[in-house]
Inverse folding.
């Protein structure tokens, strides 16, 4: 994440409620300004889900077994989407292009670069002051860098794992397209755009870590100059080819003609002037997530998935503008509750990724072990959220440095940094009695948990939760360290339903003509959990489907 990529003012507010007024359709010059979405108590779009999922007070009514106190203090960014139809007389400028892109992150910029490469004209509207770069690596199923390292997984295995993670509540053709074409897309990035400008590329990990019990498949590529430099290079490639990128000019409303086709979008510059951008071949929504729209989060996400200790998305521009614009013209969306990209290792200090990212001993508030700590980050986060209070405790002892080196295997982390972060956010306990006091449990219970865990470590077989014997390391030497762990939310990842050509689907599952979505505003891939064990899908799908969209709109492929 790069906190310097956005320059906006945020307000701290409590969760929002109340109903928003619906805008009527406005006709003008043969076009209809975008309409407001179906009624939603939060003032945001809700597609077909309204009264059945919202309480009378207008707040989300997802059942939760307990009321939470504390946790992350959610904040709102400034929502750009405008529900009220914008009159033609208010438009200060009208421009035309082949493809108009809403959002200058990896998804939007990849589409812009691909379209420019194929000779199309492109205008990009971006809400922030510069491009958005979130992440550290890009996912691909194969490609030259991974293949040369012997890290190309079996595509059939990846497909089956992806479908299982989504419980088959997803579009298998979208996943199959990503699996089939992501290698080509990342090679295109290397060969046509970067050409070594971001330094050497390499796999983000040295092995397929599902096999050895750590956390995820080796399906990502990283660069010496970092992810930020890669996104900037994609942007510059598009600009050099003639793309017009307008910063501080968010898209606020889609333009729909009388036949239902999307003609373009209305943006609003920092001076408050509306600009209509007409895209002859298409309009792409690539506006990112909605986790800085608290009302949308409350409305669409499980309460336990919001009870986090860290929020790792640094861009308050992610307020669901593309979701709302799409829903306003009849787009379908992923059904609620939406999945979010959750990690384990959230700290009460607001950080993450200390030694808690490793498979150290976990206990809940009662001092009882509750999980196979080898789980991938998303599943481990779900297990943490399931516990009382949606949190638990990571327990290490005086041998924490040695333990970290054992557990990390070939994971690409600096063990000393991980240990220092863990200790900084932990409570140091001189005895089991103090450990029990820190957790708030009975001493006899935590002592029994430690005794059983150490017994299993000596056996080398986890008879209780089936963790890899390699990662069963005794916890028996004071001082003990108790790290209070919640989940860490990176970003929301569900959105508008799309097919494998990135076409946004409307009524009857039919594509809305000339409307596309990519990146975290798009849906159809995830349900219930984000599959961390297939690493880099979020950035990888943005690159892959952006690359493919530019080619399709140019007629290079169907």
């Amino acid at each position: 994440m790069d906190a310097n990529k956005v320059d906006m003012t945020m307000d701290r507010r409590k969760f929002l409620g109340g109903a928003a007024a619906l805008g009527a359709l406005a006709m003008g010059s043969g076009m209809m300004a975008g309409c407001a979405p179906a009624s939603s108590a939060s003032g945001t779009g809700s597609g077909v889900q309204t009264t059945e999922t919202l309480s009378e007070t207008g707040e989300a009514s997802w059942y939760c077994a307990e009321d939470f106190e504390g946790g992350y203090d959610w904040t709102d960014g400034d929502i750009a989407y405008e529900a009220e139809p914008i009159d033609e007389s208010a438009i200060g400028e009208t421009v035309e292009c082949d493809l108009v892109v809403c959002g200058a992150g990896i998804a939007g910029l990849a589409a812009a670069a691909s379209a420019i490469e194929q000779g199309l004209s492109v205008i990009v509207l971006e809400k922030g002051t510069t491009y958005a770069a979130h992440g550290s690596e890009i996912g691909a199923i194969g490609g030259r860098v991974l293949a040369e390292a012997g890290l190309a997984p079996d595509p059939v295995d990846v497909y089956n794992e992806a479908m299982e993670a989504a419980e088959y509540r997803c579009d298998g053709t979208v996943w199959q397209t990503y699996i089939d074409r992501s290698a080509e897309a990342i090679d295109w990035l290397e060969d046509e755009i970067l050409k070594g400008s971001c330094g050497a590329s390499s796999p983000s990990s040295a092995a397929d870590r599902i096999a050895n019990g750590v956390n995820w498949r080796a399906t990502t590529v990283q660069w010496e100059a970092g992810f930020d430099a890669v996104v900037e290079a994609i942007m510059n490639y598009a600009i050099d080819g003639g793309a017009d990128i307008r910063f501080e000019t968010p898209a606020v409303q889609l333009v729909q003609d009388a036949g239902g086709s999307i003609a373009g979008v209305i943006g609003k510059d920092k001076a408050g002037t509306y600009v209509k951008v007409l895209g002859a071949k298409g309009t792409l929504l690539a506006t990112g997530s909605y986790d800085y729209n608290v009302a949308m989060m409350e409305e669409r996400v499980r309460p336990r998935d919001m009870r986090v200790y860290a929020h790792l998305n640094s861009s308050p521009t992610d307020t669901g503008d593309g979701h709302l614009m799409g829903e306003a013209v009849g787009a379908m969306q992923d059904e609620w509750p939406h999945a979010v990209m959750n990690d384990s290792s959230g700290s009460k200090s607001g950080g993450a990724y200390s030694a808690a990212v490793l498979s150290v001993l976990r206990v809940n508030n009662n001092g009882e072990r509750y999980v196979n700590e080898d789980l991938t980050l998303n599943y481990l986060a779900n297990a943490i959220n399931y516990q009382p209070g949606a949190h638990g405790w990571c327990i290490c002892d005086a041998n924490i440095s040695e333990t970290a080196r054992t557990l990390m295997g070939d994971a690409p982390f600096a063990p000393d940094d991980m240990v220092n972060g863990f200790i900084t956010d932990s409570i140091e306990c001189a005895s089991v009695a103090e450990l029990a006091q820190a957790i708030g449990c009975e001493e006899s219970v935590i002592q029994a948990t430690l005794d059983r865990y150490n017994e299993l470590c000596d056996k080398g077989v986890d008879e209780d939760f089936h963790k890899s014997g390699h990662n069963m390391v005794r916890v028996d030497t004071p001082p003990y360290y108790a790290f209070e762990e919640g989940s860490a939310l990176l970003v929301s990842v569900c959105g508008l339903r799309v097919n494998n050509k990135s076409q946004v689907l409307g009524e009857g599952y039919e594509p809305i003509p000339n409307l596309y979505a990519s990146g975290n505003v798009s849906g159809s891939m995830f349900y219930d959990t984000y599959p961390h064990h297939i690493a880099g899908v979020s950035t990888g799908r943005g690159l892959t489907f952006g690359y493919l969209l530019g080619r399709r709109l140019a007629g290079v492929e169907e």
